[in-house]
Amino acid sequence: MEESSYSDVLQLRRGRRPCCRRGTQVVLLGLVTATLWAGLLTLLLLWHRDTVQGLRQLEDIAARNVSRVSKDVERHKGDQMAQQSQVAQALQSMEEIQAEQKRMEIQDSELSRNLDGLLEDLSNFKSQGLNERRTALDSLERLQEEVAKLWIELRVSNGSVCNTCPEQWVSFQRKCYYFGEGAKRWFQARQACRRLRGRLVSIHSQEEQDFLAKHSNKKGSWIGLRDLDREGEFVWMDQSPLDYSNWRPGEPNNGAQGEDCVMLLGSGQWNDAFCGSYLDGWVCDQLATC
Ligand code: MMA
Ligand code: CA
Fold first, then answer.
1. What is the rounded (10 degree) CA torsion for 121, 124, 125, 127?
2. Dihedral angle at the C-alpha atoms of 151, 153, 155, 157, nearest 10 degrees?
3. What is the DSSP letter of 247?
4. Roughly how many angstroms between the first and final C-alpha of the chain, as a whole number?
5. Mean of the pLDDT values across residues 38-58?
6. Protein residue with least CA distance to atom 9, ligand 1
7. Which residue has its alpha carbon closest to ligand 1 atom 11?
8. What local confidence, expressed as pLDDT, does residue 27 receive?
C-alpha cells in the first residue's frame, strides 16, 4: 500500500497520463504510414498504367511499321522479278540481234564476193569488147587501105592518075596530107585523124619525107609509127612495112619515161617520144581519090 501510493504521487507530480499519449502516437504513426503507402501505391499504379499504354502504342507503331516494311519488301520483290524478266528479255533480244548481225555479215560478205565477181566479169567483158572493137577497127582500116590501093592500081593500069583531095588537104603523089595544129597527145592525134577520115601519116620514101619536112610544124609533129606492143619493134598504123626511116642519130633511144610513139622533129628527123607528151603538130594522110 505504501509503494503504489508513492508512484501515484510521482505521476501526479508530473501532471500527465503515459498510457494515453503513447497510443495516440502509434495511431498517428500508423495513419501516416498508411497514407504514405497509399500514395506510393497510387503512384505505382499510375506509372504502371502509363507504361502499359506507352508499350501498347509502341506495339501498334511497331506492327504498323512491320506491315509497311513487309509491304515494301513484297513490292520490292515484285519490282525485282519484273526487272529480272526485263533483263532476261533484253538479253534474249540482244542475242537475237547478234545472231541477225552475224547473218547480215555473212550475207554482206557473200554479196561483196558476188559484186567482186560481177565487177571482174564486167571488166573482162569490157576489155574483151574493147579488144574486139580494136581488132575490128584495125581490120576495117586494113580493108579500106587494101580497097584504096586496089582502086589506085586499077586507075593507074587504066592510065588515069588519082590526085583528088578533100578541102584543106594537100595532094602529093598518090596521097593527101592534112597538117593538123593544136596540142595533142599521140592517141588524141590518132583520133583526130580518124575523125577526118584519115590516119596518122606513114612515110615510105625520101621524096615523101622531104615533102613532109617542108610542110610540117617546126616544133614537132606526131606521125603514125610506134613500138607499143613490143619494145624496139616499130610498126606503121596502116600496117605497111617499115621500108624507109629517117631517125635522128642516137634515136630511137626509148628515153626516160619510156618512148613508144614517133614524132617528126622540126628538122624532119624522127625521134621516139613519150606518147603522153603534147605536140602542136600532127600529120594525117589518106589515099587520093580519082
Ligand atoms: C631528148 C632526147 C630524145 C628524147 C627527148 C625527150 C630533146 O631530145 O633524149 O631521145 O626523146 O629528149 O624529151
Ligand atoms: Ca627518143
1. 160
2. -150
3. B
4. 213
5. 91
6. 255
7. 273
8. 92
- Supply the pLDDT for residue 76: 86
Centre of ligand 1 to C-alpha 259, Å, is 9
Helix or strand (DSSP H, E) at 21? helix 18-157
Q: Which tens digits make up the pLDDT trace of 91-117?
A: 999 999 999 999 999 999 999 999 999
CA 256 – ligand 2 centroid, Å? 9
Q: Which of 222, 227, 253 to mutate to test the pocket of ligand 1 (most atoms within 8 A of CB)?
A: 253
The answer to whether the bond into 166 is cis (omega within 30° of 0) is: no
Cα 285 to ligand 1 centre (Å): 26
Q: Which domains, from first to last, does the chain contain?
A: 162-287 (3.10.100.10)
Report whether 203 contacts 194 (CB < 8 A). Answer: no
- Residue-averaged pLDDT of the chain: 88
Residue identifier of the C-alpha nearest atom 12 of ligand 1: 255
Taking the centre of ligand 1 as the mean of its atom positions, its distance from the CA of residue 273, in whole angstroms, is 7
Mutate which of 271, 272, 274, 277 for ligand 1? The one with the most ligand atoms within 8 Å of its CB, which is 271
What pTM does this model have? 0.52
243 CB-near residues (< 8 Å, 6+ apart): 204
Query: In the chain, what are the helix, strand and coil shares in percent, each to the nearest 5?
Result: 60, 15, 25
Cell numbers that stand for 210 in this block = 622531104
User: Which residues approach ligand 1 with their CB closer than 6 A?
Assistant: 251, 253, 255, 259, 271, 273
Region 155-163 average pLDDT: 66
User: Are 145 and 204 within 8 A, CB to CB?
Assistant: no
Q: Which three cell numbers stand for residue 37?
A: 503507402
Measured in angstroms, how far is the CA atom of residue 244 from the centroid of ligand 2?
A: 18
Residues in the chain: 290
Cell of 71: 509491304
DSSP-derived pairing of the beta strands 175-184 and 170-172: antiparallel
